[in-house]
Amino acid sequence: MVRLGPTFLVEIGLKSKGAPGAAPDLPHKKLRALIDTGAGGECIDDELARKLGLPITDEGEISGVGGKHRAYIYTARLWVPDLGRLLFQPFTGVKLLEAESWHSIILGRSFLRQHRLTYDGKTGEVQID
């Protein structure tokens, strides 16, 4: 946790194969998602989004440690099994895997608005509820 940050294994796709009312069954499973309190919104690795065939629904300018640049916005469903939470929303395409990130998805402050995150710096333990 100290080295890689708070991480969840998530599922992502556009359409669920699950039955109505049941937990979604999205086609791409066990992707690593980082909880990032410095990120305003949610991001997905751009190359991964293209590989998954996620639709580009917008384009805009974003900024981060690499400065400002243009980015595609993809729409996807994302299931966080550990929290029982399903998202169906835009994800900004960023170059996570190209930068050798261990994570392929970033969950930012907009995701955290429905949760409380506690980080113990001495032990490296994270609690989210």
How would you characterize this protein structure?
This protein has 129 residues and is mainly β. It has one domain: Acid Proteases (Cathepsin D, subunit A, domain 1, Beta Barrel), CATH 2.40.70. It is built from two helices and nine strands, in the order E-E-E-H-E-E-E-E-H-E-E. The strands form two sheets. It has a six-stranded mixed β-barrel with strand order 1-2-7-3-6-5. The radius of gyration is 15 Å and the shape is globular.
Topology-level CATH name: Cathepsin D, subunit A, domain 1
Strand % is over 45%
- Total number of helical segments? 2
Q: What structural class should be given to the helix and strand makeup?
A: mainly beta
The end-to-end distance, rounded to whole angstroms, is 17 Å
- Uncertain runs: none
Topology readout:
Elements: E1 7-13, E2 28-35, E3 43-45, H1 46-51, E4 56-64, E5 67-80, E6 85-94, E7 105-107, H2 109-112, E8 117-120, E9 125-128
Parallel strand pairs: 2-7, 3-6
Antiparallel strand pairs: 1-2, 1-5, 3-7, 4-5, 5-6, 8-9
Provide key terms for this protein.
single chain; 8% helix; 6-stranded mixed barrel; mainly beta; Cathepsin D, subunit A, domain 1; 129 residues
Summarize the structure.
This protein has 129 residues and is mainly β. The chain has helices at 46-51, 109-112; strands at 7-13, 28-35, 43-45, 56-64, 67-80, 85-94, 105-107, 117-120, 125-128. It has a six-stranded mixed β-barrel with strand order 1-2-7-3-6-5. Strands 8-9 form a two-stranded antiparallel ribbon.
